[in-house]
Amino acid sequence: MSAGGEANTQLAFARRGIITDAMKRVAEREGLDPELIRSEIARGRLIIPANIHHLNSSLDPMGIGTVATVKINANMGNSAVTSDSEEELKKLHMAVHYGADTVMDLSTGGDIPEIRKAIIAASPVPVGTVPIYEALSRVKRIEDLTPQILLETIEDQAEQGVDYMTIHAGILREYLPLTRRRITGIVSRGGSILAQWMASHQKQNPLYEYFDQISEILRAHDVSYSLGDSLRPGCVADASDEAQFGELKTLGELTERAWKMDVQVMIEGPGHVPMDQLEMNVKLQQRYCHEAPFYTLGPLVTDVAPGYDHITSAIGAAMVGWYGSSLLCYVTPKEHLGLPNEDDVRNGVIAYKIAAHAADLARGRRNARQRDDALSHARFSFDWEQQFALSLDPETSRKMHDETLPDGFYKDAKFCSMCGPKFCSMRISQTASKALDAANAEQPQAVIATGKLT
Protein backbone atom coordinates (compact mmCIF):
# COMPACT_ATOMS: atom_id res chain seq x y z
CA MET A 1 0.00 0.00 0.00
CA SER A 2 1.25 3.50 -0.83
CA ALA A 3 2.16 6.03 1.83
CA GLY A 4 -0.85 7.83 3.26
CA GLY A 5 -3.38 5.12 2.40
CA GLU A 6 -4.95 4.04 -0.87
CA ALA A 7 -4.54 6.63 -3.63
CA ASN A 8 -6.77 7.36 -6.62
CA THR A 9 -4.07 8.35 -9.08
CA GLN A 10 -3.68 6.74 -12.50
CA LEU A 11 -0.52 5.08 -11.17
CA ALA A 12 -2.32 3.68 -8.12
CA PHE A 13 -5.19 2.35 -10.24
CA ALA A 14 -2.73 0.73 -12.65
CA ARG A 15 -0.87 -0.96 -9.81
CA ARG A 16 -4.17 -2.35 -8.53
CA GLY A 17 -4.88 -3.82 -11.95
CA ILE A 18 -7.66 -1.33 -12.76
CA ILE A 19 -8.03 -0.01 -16.32
CA THR A 20 -9.52 3.46 -15.99
CA ASP A 21 -11.54 5.37 -18.58
CA ALA A 22 -8.49 7.59 -19.11
CA MET A 23 -6.37 4.51 -19.87
CA LYS A 24 -9.00 3.27 -22.32
CA ARG A 25 -8.99 6.64 -24.07
CA VAL A 26 -5.19 6.66 -24.34
CA ALA A 27 -5.26 3.12 -25.72
CA GLU A 28 -7.83 4.21 -28.30
CA ARG A 29 -5.77 7.20 -29.37
CA GLU A 30 -2.56 5.17 -29.61
CA GLY A 31 -4.11 2.11 -31.24
CA LEU A 32 -2.84 -0.10 -28.40
CA ASP A 33 -4.27 -2.67 -26.01
CA PRO A 34 -5.66 -1.03 -22.82
CA GLU A 35 -3.87 -3.68 -20.76
CA LEU A 36 -0.55 -2.60 -22.27
CA ILE A 37 -1.29 0.99 -21.30
CA ARG A 38 -2.14 -0.08 -17.74
CA SER A 39 1.00 -2.19 -17.37
CA GLU A 40 3.27 0.58 -18.69
CA ILE A 41 1.77 3.05 -16.22
CA ALA A 42 2.24 0.56 -13.40
CA ARG A 43 5.93 0.24 -14.35
CA GLY A 44 6.34 4.03 -14.42
CA ARG A 45 7.26 4.09 -18.12
CA LEU A 46 4.03 5.84 -19.18
CA ILE A 47 2.09 8.65 -17.55
CA ILE A 48 -1.34 10.17 -18.13
CA PRO A 49 -1.14 13.78 -16.88
CA ALA A 50 -4.75 14.22 -15.79
CA ASN A 51 -5.57 16.28 -12.72
CA ILE A 52 -8.92 15.01 -11.41
CA HIS A 53 -10.40 18.52 -11.68
CA HIS A 54 -9.31 19.01 -15.32
CA LEU A 55 -10.25 15.40 -16.18
CA ASN A 56 -13.79 16.08 -15.02
CA SER A 57 -14.13 19.13 -17.27
CA SER A 58 -12.34 19.82 -20.58
CA LEU A 59 -9.42 17.36 -20.68
CA ASP A 60 -9.06 14.68 -23.36
CA PRO A 61 -6.58 12.21 -21.75
CA MET A 62 -3.28 11.47 -23.51
CA GLY A 63 -0.25 9.37 -22.69
CA ILE A 64 3.48 10.13 -22.49
CA GLY A 65 5.93 7.23 -22.63
CA THR A 66 8.11 5.12 -24.90
CA VAL A 67 5.25 2.82 -25.90
CA ALA A 68 3.25 5.82 -27.14
CA THR A 69 3.89 8.13 -30.07
CA VAL A 70 6.31 10.97 -29.43
CA LYS A 71 4.46 13.98 -28.06
CA ILE A 72 5.22 17.72 -28.14
CA ASN A 73 4.65 20.51 -25.63
CA ALA A 74 4.09 24.18 -26.42
CA ASN A 75 5.07 26.80 -23.86
CA MET A 76 3.05 29.96 -23.40
CA GLY A 77 2.43 32.52 -20.69
CA ASN A 78 3.06 36.19 -20.21
CA SER A 79 5.99 38.00 -18.63
CA ALA A 80 6.34 40.82 -16.13
CA VAL A 81 6.68 43.08 -19.19
CA THR A 82 3.50 41.98 -20.98
CA SER A 83 0.29 40.67 -19.42
CA ASP A 84 -2.76 39.76 -21.49
CA SER A 85 -4.89 36.64 -20.87
CA GLU A 86 -6.62 37.02 -24.24
CA GLU A 87 -3.29 36.82 -26.02
CA GLU A 88 -2.42 33.67 -24.08
CA LEU A 89 -5.73 32.06 -25.07
CA LYS A 90 -4.96 32.86 -28.71
CA LYS A 91 -1.62 31.11 -28.29
CA LEU A 92 -3.39 28.12 -26.70
CA HIS A 93 -5.84 27.79 -29.59
CA MET A 94 -3.01 28.14 -32.12
CA ALA A 95 -0.92 25.48 -30.37
CA VAL A 96 -3.78 22.98 -30.07
CA HIS A 97 -4.95 23.65 -33.64
CA TYR A 98 -1.55 22.73 -35.04
CA GLY A 99 -1.13 19.66 -32.87
CA ALA A 100 0.47 20.44 -29.50
CA ASP A 101 -0.14 17.51 -27.15
CA THR A 102 0.39 19.51 -23.95
CA VAL A 103 0.89 23.17 -23.07
CA MET A 104 2.71 24.90 -20.23
CA ASP A 105 1.66 28.20 -18.71
CA LEU A 106 4.91 29.92 -17.74
CA SER A 107 3.35 33.25 -16.79
CA THR A 108 5.45 35.40 -14.50
CA GLY A 109 3.43 38.63 -14.39
CA GLY A 110 -0.07 40.05 -14.08
CA ASP A 111 -2.87 38.01 -12.52
CA ILE A 112 -1.20 34.61 -12.85
CA PRO A 113 -4.04 32.55 -11.25
CA GLU A 114 -6.67 34.13 -13.54
CA ILE A 115 -4.58 33.54 -16.66
CA ARG A 116 -4.04 29.91 -15.62
CA LYS A 117 -7.73 29.45 -14.81
CA ALA A 118 -8.70 30.63 -18.30
CA ILE A 119 -6.13 28.35 -19.96
CA ILE A 120 -7.20 25.25 -18.01
CA ALA A 121 -10.89 25.88 -18.68
CA ALA A 122 -10.26 26.19 -22.42
CA SER A 123 -7.63 23.48 -22.86
CA PRO A 124 -8.44 19.94 -24.07
CA VAL A 125 -4.76 19.00 -23.56
CA PRO A 126 -2.84 18.69 -20.28
CA VAL A 127 -1.63 21.95 -18.76
CA GLY A 128 1.70 22.20 -16.96
CA THR A 129 3.17 24.95 -14.79
CA VAL A 130 6.30 25.93 -12.88
CA PRO A 131 4.89 26.83 -9.42
CA ILE A 132 7.99 28.65 -8.22
CA TYR A 133 7.22 31.46 -10.69
CA GLU A 134 3.95 32.28 -8.97
CA ALA A 135 5.51 31.73 -5.55
CA LEU A 136 8.12 34.38 -6.34
CA SER A 137 5.37 36.80 -7.38
CA ARG A 138 3.94 36.52 -3.85
CA VAL A 139 7.07 37.95 -2.21
CA LYS A 140 9.31 40.99 -2.74
CA ARG A 141 12.64 39.19 -2.94
CA ILE A 142 13.89 35.68 -3.66
CA GLU A 143 15.25 35.53 -0.12
CA ASP A 144 11.71 36.01 1.21
CA LEU A 145 10.51 32.69 -0.21
CA THR A 146 9.64 30.09 2.44
CA PRO A 147 8.80 26.40 2.24
CA GLN A 148 5.27 27.27 3.35
CA ILE A 149 4.78 29.73 0.45
CA LEU A 150 6.05 27.12 -1.99
CA LEU A 151 3.71 24.43 -0.63
CA GLU A 152 0.72 26.78 -0.62
CA THR A 153 1.37 27.78 -4.23
CA ILE A 154 1.65 24.15 -5.33
CA GLU A 155 -1.57 23.26 -3.55
CA ASP A 156 -3.44 26.24 -5.03
CA GLN A 157 -2.39 25.23 -8.54
CA ALA A 158 -3.26 21.58 -7.94
CA GLU A 159 -6.75 22.55 -6.76
CA GLN A 160 -7.17 24.72 -9.85
CA GLY A 161 -6.59 21.74 -12.17
CA VAL A 162 -2.93 21.83 -13.27
CA ASP A 163 -2.04 18.42 -14.74
CA TYR A 164 1.73 18.39 -14.28
CA MET A 165 4.23 20.63 -12.50
CA THR A 166 7.89 21.34 -13.02
CA ILE A 167 9.39 20.94 -9.56
CA HIS A 168 13.09 21.84 -9.34
CA ALA A 169 13.84 19.50 -6.45
CA GLY A 170 17.08 18.03 -7.86
CA ILE A 171 19.33 21.06 -7.60
CA LEU A 172 21.25 20.65 -4.34
CA ARG A 173 23.65 22.98 -2.52
CA GLU A 174 26.59 20.71 -3.24
CA TYR A 175 26.03 21.02 -7.01
CA LEU A 176 26.26 24.82 -7.13
CA PRO A 177 30.10 25.04 -7.18
CA LEU A 178 30.10 22.71 -10.18
CA THR A 179 28.47 25.42 -12.30
CA ARG A 180 31.25 27.97 -11.73
CA ARG A 181 33.25 26.65 -14.68
CA ARG A 182 30.35 27.01 -17.11
CA ILE A 183 30.04 29.69 -19.77
CA THR A 184 26.32 30.29 -19.13
CA GLY A 185 26.01 29.18 -15.49
CA ILE A 186 22.47 28.20 -14.46
CA VAL A 187 20.00 28.99 -17.27
CA SER A 188 16.91 27.47 -15.66
CA ARG A 189 14.82 30.29 -14.17
CA GLY A 190 13.59 28.03 -11.37
CA GLY A 191 17.08 26.68 -10.81
CA SER A 192 18.65 30.13 -10.61
CA ILE A 193 15.98 31.28 -8.10
CA LEU A 194 16.69 28.30 -5.86
CA ALA A 195 20.45 28.71 -6.23
CA GLN A 196 20.20 32.30 -4.98
CA TRP A 197 17.91 31.22 -2.13
CA MET A 198 20.32 28.46 -1.04
CA ALA A 199 23.34 30.76 -1.28
CA SER A 200 21.57 33.43 0.76
CA HIS A 201 20.23 31.17 3.51
CA GLN A 202 23.03 28.56 3.44
CA LYS A 203 20.36 25.87 3.50
CA GLN A 204 19.41 22.93 1.30
CA ASN A 205 16.87 23.25 -1.52
CA PRO A 206 13.44 23.45 0.20
CA LEU A 207 11.79 21.58 -2.70
CA TYR A 208 14.14 18.68 -1.96
CA GLU A 209 13.69 18.92 1.80
CA TYR A 210 9.88 19.01 1.53
CA PHE A 211 9.59 16.62 -1.41
CA ASP A 212 7.36 14.13 0.40
CA GLN A 213 4.95 16.89 1.45
CA ILE A 214 4.79 18.05 -2.18
CA SER A 215 4.09 14.47 -3.24
CA GLU A 216 1.16 14.31 -0.82
CA ILE A 217 -0.38 17.36 -2.49
CA LEU A 218 0.15 16.02 -6.02
CA ARG A 219 -1.16 12.62 -5.00
CA ALA A 220 -4.43 14.09 -3.69
CA HIS A 221 -5.21 15.69 -7.07
CA ASP A 222 -3.36 13.25 -9.37
CA VAL A 223 -0.89 15.85 -10.57
CA SER A 224 2.18 14.42 -12.33
CA TYR A 225 5.72 15.45 -11.52
CA SER A 226 7.83 16.94 -14.28
CA LEU A 227 11.08 16.85 -12.34
CA GLY A 228 12.95 19.94 -13.52
CA ASP A 229 16.48 19.94 -14.87
CA SER A 230 17.69 23.07 -13.08
CA LEU A 231 21.27 22.42 -14.14
CA ARG A 232 20.62 21.77 -17.82
CA PRO A 233 23.35 23.15 -20.08
CA GLY A 234 22.61 26.57 -21.59
CA CYS A 235 25.16 26.19 -24.39
CA VAL A 236 26.85 23.29 -26.13
CA ALA A 237 30.12 23.99 -24.28
CA ASP A 238 28.39 23.26 -20.95
CA ALA A 239 26.74 20.01 -22.06
CA SER A 240 27.16 16.69 -20.25
CA ASP A 241 29.11 18.09 -17.32
CA GLU A 242 29.31 16.98 -13.70
CA ALA A 243 26.60 19.40 -12.55
CA GLN A 244 24.07 18.17 -15.12
CA PHE A 245 24.59 14.49 -14.38
CA GLY A 246 24.81 15.00 -10.62
CA GLU A 247 21.33 16.50 -10.66
CA LEU A 248 20.11 13.72 -12.98
CA LYS A 249 21.10 11.09 -10.42
CA THR A 250 19.20 13.01 -7.74
CA LEU A 251 16.15 13.06 -10.02
CA GLY A 252 16.39 9.27 -10.16
CA GLU A 253 16.27 9.15 -6.35
CA LEU A 254 13.26 11.48 -6.31
CA THR A 255 11.49 9.39 -8.96
CA GLU A 256 11.52 6.37 -6.67
CA ARG A 257 10.29 8.47 -3.74
CA ALA A 258 7.39 9.81 -5.80
CA TRP A 259 6.48 6.33 -7.07
CA LYS A 260 6.28 5.06 -3.49
CA MET A 261 3.49 7.59 -3.00
CA ASP A 262 1.72 6.64 -6.25
CA VAL A 263 2.61 9.91 -7.99
CA GLN A 264 3.35 9.82 -11.72
CA VAL A 265 6.73 11.14 -12.87
CA MET A 266 8.51 12.33 -15.98
CA ILE A 267 12.02 13.76 -16.12
CA GLU A 268 13.05 16.97 -17.86
CA GLY A 269 16.21 16.91 -19.93
CA PRO A 270 19.04 19.02 -21.31
CA GLY A 271 18.61 22.19 -23.32
CA HIS A 272 21.81 22.57 -25.40
CA VAL A 273 23.68 19.40 -26.43
CA PRO A 274 25.80 18.69 -29.54
CA MET A 275 24.52 15.87 -31.73
CA ASP A 276 27.29 13.41 -30.85
CA GLN A 277 26.23 13.47 -27.16
CA LEU A 278 22.47 13.09 -27.59
CA GLU A 279 22.18 9.30 -27.53
CA MET A 280 24.40 9.09 -24.46
CA ASN A 281 22.24 11.65 -22.67
CA VAL A 282 19.04 9.70 -23.35
CA LYS A 283 20.59 6.40 -22.25
CA LEU A 284 21.88 7.89 -19.00
CA GLN A 285 18.48 9.39 -18.22
CA GLN A 286 16.78 6.04 -18.77
CA ARG A 287 19.35 4.32 -16.55
CA TYR A 288 19.51 6.85 -13.70
CA CYS A 289 15.75 7.54 -13.66
CA HIS A 290 14.51 3.96 -14.01
CA GLU A 291 12.93 4.42 -17.47
CA ALA A 292 10.59 7.21 -16.39
CA PRO A 293 9.43 9.16 -19.47
CA PHE A 294 11.98 11.69 -20.71
CA TYR A 295 10.76 15.24 -21.42
CA THR A 296 13.47 17.03 -23.38
CA LEU A 297 13.80 20.79 -23.72
CA GLY A 298 15.02 21.06 -27.31
CA PRO A 299 17.82 20.13 -27.31
CA LEU A 300 19.58 22.79 -29.37
CA VAL A 301 22.52 21.29 -31.23
CA THR A 302 24.30 24.58 -31.96
CA ASP A 303 24.30 28.10 -30.48
CA VAL A 304 24.91 30.19 -33.60
CA ALA A 305 21.36 30.71 -34.93
CA PRO A 306 19.35 33.19 -32.82
CA GLY A 307 16.05 33.73 -34.59
CA TYR A 308 16.13 30.20 -36.00
CA ASP A 309 16.38 28.15 -32.83
CA HIS A 310 13.13 26.34 -33.67
CA ILE A 311 15.27 24.70 -36.38
CA THR A 312 18.46 24.08 -34.38
CA SER A 313 16.38 22.52 -31.62
CA ALA A 314 14.10 20.49 -33.91
CA ILE A 315 17.21 18.73 -35.23
CA GLY A 316 18.07 17.63 -31.71
CA ALA A 317 14.44 16.88 -30.88
CA ALA A 318 14.09 14.47 -33.79
CA MET A 319 17.23 12.65 -32.71
CA VAL A 320 16.36 12.30 -29.01
CA GLY A 321 12.85 11.24 -30.00
CA TRP A 322 14.44 8.49 -32.05
CA TYR A 323 16.69 7.48 -29.14
CA GLY A 324 13.82 7.26 -26.64
CA SER A 325 12.51 10.64 -25.45
CA SER A 326 8.75 10.69 -24.97
CA LEU A 327 7.85 14.40 -24.87
CA LEU A 328 9.58 17.19 -26.79
CA CYS A 329 9.31 20.75 -25.49
CA TYR A 330 9.13 23.03 -28.48
CA VAL A 331 11.36 26.02 -29.08
CA THR A 332 10.14 29.04 -31.05
CA PRO A 333 12.12 31.41 -33.29
CA LYS A 334 12.04 33.89 -30.39
CA GLU A 335 14.04 31.63 -28.03
CA HIS A 336 16.71 33.70 -26.22
CA LEU A 337 15.32 36.85 -27.87
CA GLY A 338 11.84 37.67 -26.60
CA LEU A 339 8.33 36.58 -25.63
CA PRO A 340 6.78 34.48 -28.46
CA ASN A 341 3.70 35.77 -30.22
CA GLU A 342 0.93 33.76 -31.87
CA ASP A 343 2.87 33.25 -35.11
CA ASP A 344 6.00 32.16 -33.21
CA VAL A 345 3.90 29.53 -31.45
CA ARG A 346 2.68 28.18 -34.80
CA ASN A 347 6.24 27.98 -36.18
CA GLY A 348 7.48 26.23 -33.06
CA VAL A 349 4.66 23.69 -33.01
CA ILE A 350 5.06 22.82 -36.70
CA ALA A 351 8.84 22.39 -36.33
CA TYR A 352 8.28 20.01 -33.44
CA LYS A 353 5.45 18.08 -35.09
CA ILE A 354 7.94 17.37 -37.87
CA ALA A 355 10.56 16.28 -35.34
CA ALA A 356 8.14 14.03 -33.42
CA HIS A 357 6.82 12.39 -36.58
CA ALA A 358 10.33 11.84 -37.91
CA ALA A 359 11.20 10.15 -34.60
CA ASP A 360 8.13 7.90 -34.80
CA LEU A 361 9.12 6.89 -38.34
CA ALA A 362 12.66 6.09 -37.23
CA ARG A 363 11.36 4.00 -34.31
CA GLY A 364 9.10 2.01 -36.64
CA ARG A 365 5.88 3.01 -34.91
CA ARG A 366 2.85 1.08 -36.04
CA ASN A 367 0.98 3.01 -38.76
CA ALA A 368 3.44 5.92 -38.51
CA ARG A 369 4.17 5.85 -42.24
CA GLN A 370 0.57 5.72 -43.43
CA ARG A 371 0.29 9.49 -43.70
CA ASP A 372 3.63 9.76 -45.51
CA ASP A 373 2.66 7.13 -48.04
CA ALA A 374 -0.77 8.66 -48.61
CA LEU A 375 0.76 12.09 -49.20
CA SER A 376 3.34 10.59 -51.57
CA HIS A 377 0.62 8.95 -53.63
CA ALA A 378 -1.30 12.25 -53.72
CA ARG A 379 1.87 14.08 -54.79
CA PHE A 380 2.62 11.65 -57.62
CA SER A 381 -0.96 11.78 -58.90
CA PHE A 382 -1.07 15.61 -58.63
CA ASP A 383 -3.99 15.44 -56.20
CA TRP A 384 -3.30 18.83 -54.70
CA GLU A 385 -6.32 18.93 -52.39
CA GLN A 386 -5.38 15.62 -50.79
CA GLN A 387 -1.76 16.72 -50.51
CA PHE A 388 -2.79 19.89 -48.68
CA ALA A 389 -5.15 17.96 -46.39
CA LEU A 390 -2.40 15.55 -45.34
CA SER A 391 0.13 18.32 -44.67
CA LEU A 392 1.05 19.25 -41.10
CA ASP A 393 0.30 22.85 -42.07
CA PRO A 394 -2.36 22.75 -44.84
CA GLU A 395 -2.81 26.52 -44.95
CA THR A 396 0.87 27.19 -45.61
CA SER A 397 1.30 24.41 -48.18
CA ARG A 398 -1.74 25.65 -50.11
CA LYS A 399 -0.57 29.27 -49.97
CA MET A 400 2.93 28.43 -51.19
CA HIS A 401 1.57 26.36 -54.07
CA ASP A 402 -1.08 28.83 -55.20
CA GLU A 403 0.78 32.12 -54.95
CA THR A 404 2.82 31.60 -58.15
CA LEU A 405 0.05 30.06 -60.28
CA PRO A 406 -3.03 31.72 -61.81
CA ASP A 407 -6.13 31.68 -59.63
CA GLY A 408 -7.88 28.31 -59.68
CA PHE A 409 -5.34 26.84 -62.11
CA TYR A 410 -3.76 24.50 -59.55
CA LYS A 411 -6.79 22.21 -59.39
CA ASP A 412 -6.04 20.67 -62.77
CA ALA A 413 -2.35 21.42 -63.27
CA LYS A 414 -0.10 18.36 -63.47
CA PHE A 415 2.88 20.40 -62.31
CA CYS A 416 3.87 23.19 -59.92
CA SER A 417 5.62 26.48 -60.66
CA MET A 418 9.03 25.01 -59.71
CA CYS A 419 9.35 22.85 -62.84
CA GLY A 420 6.44 23.90 -64.99
CA PRO A 421 4.77 21.57 -67.53
CA LYS A 422 7.93 20.64 -69.45
CA PHE A 423 10.41 19.74 -66.69
CA CYS A 424 8.22 18.04 -64.07
CA SER A 425 10.04 14.79 -63.28
CA MET A 426 6.96 13.00 -61.97
CA ARG A 427 4.93 13.91 -65.03
CA ILE A 428 7.78 12.75 -67.29
CA SER A 429 8.07 9.55 -65.23
CA GLN A 430 4.37 8.84 -65.68
CA THR A 431 4.63 9.41 -69.43
CA ALA A 432 7.66 7.12 -69.62
CA SER A 433 5.86 4.40 -67.66
CA LYS A 434 2.87 4.55 -70.00
CA ALA A 435 5.15 4.33 -73.05
CA LEU A 436 6.96 1.32 -71.56
CA ASP A 437 3.67 -0.41 -70.79
CA ALA A 438 2.49 0.20 -74.35
CA ALA A 439 5.74 -1.13 -75.82
CA ASN A 440 5.54 -4.28 -73.72
CA ALA A 441 1.93 -4.84 -74.73
CA GLU A 442 2.90 -4.79 -78.42
CA GLN A 443 5.60 -7.48 -78.06
CA PRO A 444 4.62 -11.13 -78.73
CA GLN A 445 4.20 -13.09 -75.53
CA ALA A 446 7.03 -15.46 -76.48
CA VAL A 447 9.42 -12.60 -76.92
CA ILE A 448 8.40 -11.14 -73.56
CA ALA A 449 8.95 -14.53 -71.95
CA THR A 450 12.50 -14.88 -73.29
CA GLY A 451 13.32 -11.25 -72.65
CA LYS A 452 14.83 -10.95 -76.14
CA LEU A 453 13.74 -8.18 -78.47
CA THR A 454 14.35 -8.33 -82.21
Please state how the strands of the largest beta sheet are arranged side by side. 3-4-5-6-7-8-9-10
Please, what is the average pLDDT?
A: 93
General form:
globular
Count of alpha/pi helices:
20
Unreliable stretches: none
Order of helices and strands: HHHEHEEHEHEHHEHHHEHEHEHEHHHHHH
Secondary-structure-derived class? alpha/beta
* Tally of DSSP β-strands: 10
What is the radius of gyration computed over CA atoms, rounded to a whole number of angstroms? 25 Å
Sheet with the most strands? 8 strands, parallel, barrel
How far is it from the N-terminal to the C-terminal residue, by CA? Answer: 84 Å
User: Which percent range fits the helix content?
Assistant: 40-55%
Measured by DSSP, the beta-strand proportion falls in 5-15%
Give your account of this protein's structure.
The protein has 454 residues and is α/β, with parallel strands linked by helices. It contains 20 helices and ten strands. Helix 14 (309-323) links the parallel strand 9 and strand 10 (327-329). The longest helix is centred in the last third of the chain and has 21 residues, at 342-362.
